[in-house]
Specification:
- The complex is a heterodimer of chains A (about 280) and B (about 290).
- Chain A is mostly helical.
- Chain A has 2 domains: about 60 residues; about 210 residues, Orthogonal Bundle (MetI-like fold), CATH 1.10.3720.
- The longest helix of chain A has about 40 residues.
- Chain A is globular.
- Chain B has about 290 residues and is mainly α.
- Chain B has 2 domains: about 40 residues; about 230 residues, MetI-like (MetI-like fold).
- In chain B, helix 3 packs across helix 7.
- Classes of the chains: A mainly alpha (about 280), B mainly alpha (about 290).
- At the A-B interface, helix 1, helix 4, helix 5, helix 6 and helix 7 of A face helix 1, helix 3, helix 4, helix 5 and helix 6 of B.
Chain lengths: ~280, ~290
């Protein structure tokens, strides 16, 4: 009698869980799904009252229109270039820094650690004006240098912080044995430790890529040439213009978001591992 | 041996030099430069000579009646966004930490908003809330919550709630992930002991789960306050701070002052005020994180 009431309780709990999860998945999925569906709706189905859920026919016209001029392609390539450079610098500098913080003891190590945490907390809006003034004075707002630096101020502290747990997991004994065998510190890093954390480094780099790809505020100010703009800034201009091409906008939103979701899916395991190791990060 | 360890230390420092130089040049120096700017009449145009104006930017800011309204907007935006994402994050973390089929897939799906570009969310929300063709607007109009051909984005009160809900959508995955990890680390025996002692699920939640999550919650709240209060992108792209300033928060004001009216000095002063307000949170966060070092 008791066991059956417990199992019934369990079943009810499972049903409640399932219902709540369905709501959650719908809440998360609806905007993205609606964007994708809208981007494939021909004009006659996009602007009807009442709106229909599924179009009567599917169409690629908005994608064709979006790519009719090479502006969008240029935005896309700009973002790809900026995010790739940011990713590579983050992987190089971030790895060296995290390694230094985990493996060495020196005066100022703790201060550096606090400096990185503090940099991590400094929001982009606080750096916006001084960075703009510096880049404008140096005449760099016509190039991508300013944006890359701006993105590094956000992603580098994050990368170091995400990488630290991967190095912390490595046993110190290997290092010590190699050092005793006469290997230099650089050799130990490059030949012994680095290969063991390579997946962590790559996934951190990809997270930095995603953050750079998505960034809006700094990108919108630190580049003033139309042809140099990033994808996020470029497509945001489509909403502020007076004539709004909703179909094109939905197509652009879809192609901006898909690469990010795919990349994130690829590295999620490492991201979850890095983020949830020990304390709360960010 | 001592010369060896000296050399070893030196090499350790060398590894960190690139990051150190970068952070000093592009984070610390800009922050100091921002403080300097806030006491000047610096403007967008490079030709105008920069002059020291003392506290003028600050007195002008505090005597501006609208500043008070924008400050309260920031508080409202931050409070509800943080509360919403923490509650949703905790709730979902509890759901996905139950043993079930496909838990990892569901967790992965629920993490997606973490990487969705703010511009995507802004575009979609403007579309679904479009007064004529937006599907959510249509549903609300049908339900009688909204007048025909009207959008929440054009209404003073509801616009703030719209951006708050959108912000919750994009920011709950972080607390969810952290809570999920924290829940996993709670000793199962505690729950079993409680069940044996006859406590209900609700009691277990109240007396075991919540106290165990206290430290996590504190750090999360601090971090999310900093991120939310200083967050610019979403509001700028969805409402632009409108209608009539009802969603203008301090970051929006900083941008408008600096790049709209070209008064960099005045903008720097506002961001100083915002920075000082956040400083307390940042100090607590760093101290908390350094404790385990």
């Amino acid at each position: 009698m008791k066991t059956s009431s417990i199992s019934r309780q369990k079943r009810n709990a499972a049903i409640v869980t399932a219902i709540l999860l369905i709501f959650a998945l719908a809440f998360v999925g609806f905007p993205l799904l609606w964007m994708a569906i809208s981007s494939f709706k021909p004009g006659v189905d996009l602007f009807v009252v009442p709106p229909t859920i599924l179009p009567r026919s599917w169409s690629l016209e908005w994608y064709q229109q979006a790519f009719a001029t090479d502006t969008v392609v240029r935005y896309f390539l700009n973002s790809l270039k900026i995010a790739s450079v940011v990713m590579i610098i983050d992987m190089l500098v971030g790895t060296l820094t995290a390694y230094s913080l985990v493996r060495f003891q020196y005066a100022g190590r703790k201060a550096l650690m606090m400096g990185i945490l503090a940099s991590y907390c400094v929001p982009p809006i606080m750096l916006l004006l001084p960075l703009y003034k510096i880049m404008a004075t140096m005449g760099l707002t016509g190039s991508h240098v300013g944006v890359i630096i701006g993105h590094l101020t956000i992603t580098l502290p994050f990368s170091v912080w995400l990488l630290i747990p991967f190095f912390k997991k490595l046993p110190r004994e290997i290092d010590e044995a190699a050092l005793i065998d006469g290997a230099s510190e650089w050799q130990v890093f490059a030949r012994v430790d680095f290969p063991l954390v390579v997946s962590g480094v790559i996934s951190t780099g990809i997270m930095a890529f995603i953050m750079s790809w998505n960034e809006f505020l700094l990108s919108s100010v630190l580049v003033n040439k139309e042809a140099m703009k990033t994808l996020t800034v470029g497509i945001s201009n489509y909403i502020s213009s007076t004539h709004i091409d909703w179909g094109i906008i939905m197509a652009l939103g879809t192609i901006t978001t898909i690469p990010v979701i795919l990349l994130f899916a690829a590295v999620q395991r490492y991201f979850v591992e890095g983020m949830t190791a020990g304390a709360v990060k960010g | 041996m001592s010369s060896y360890s000296k050399r070893h230390r030196l090499i350790g420092i060398l590894f960190a030099v690139p990051a150190l130089i970068f952070l000093l040049t592009f984070v610390l120096y800009p922050v100091a430069y921002n403080i300097y700017l806030s006491f000047t009449n610096a403007s967008l145009s490079a030709r105008k000579a920069v002059r020291f104006v003392g506290l003028k930017n600050f007195t002008a800011m505090f005597s501006n009646k609208l500043f008070k309204q924008y400050f309260w907007n920031t508080c409202k935006w931050t409070f509800w966004s943080v509360l919403g994402q923490m509650l949703l994050g905790l709730g979902l973390a509890m759901l996905i930490s139950q043993p079930m089929k496909g838990a990892t897939a569901i967790r992965s799906f629920l993490l997606i908003p973490y990487v969705v570009p703010a511009v995507t969310l802004a575009l979609v929300s403007k579309w679904i809330l479009n007064s004529d063709y937006g599907i959510v607007s249509y549903w609300c109009q049908q339900a009688g919550w909204l007048d025909a051909r009207q959008s929440f984005l054009a209404m003073k009160g509801p616009a703030m709630w719209v951006v708050v809900i959108l912000n919750i959508w994009r920011s709950y995955p972080f607390p969810m992930l952290i809570y999920w990890a924290a829940l996993k680390s709670i000793d199962r025996d505690l729950y079993e002991a409680a069940t044996v002692d006859g406590s209900t699920k609700w009691q277990s939640f109240l007396y075991i789960t919540l106290p165990q999550l206290r430290a996590t919650t504190a750090v999360l709240i601090i971090l999310r306050i900093v991120w939310t209060a200083t967050y610019y992108d979403l509001i700028y792209m969805v409402t632009g701070g409108g209608p009539t300033g009802s969603t203008t928060t301090l970051p929006i004001l900083i941008y408008q002052t600096s790049f709209g009216s070209g008064q960099l000095g005045a903008g720097a002063a506002i961001s100083m005020v915002l920075g000082v307000l956040m400083l307390g949170c940042i100090v607590i966060y760093i101290r908390n994180n350094m404790k385990e070092e």
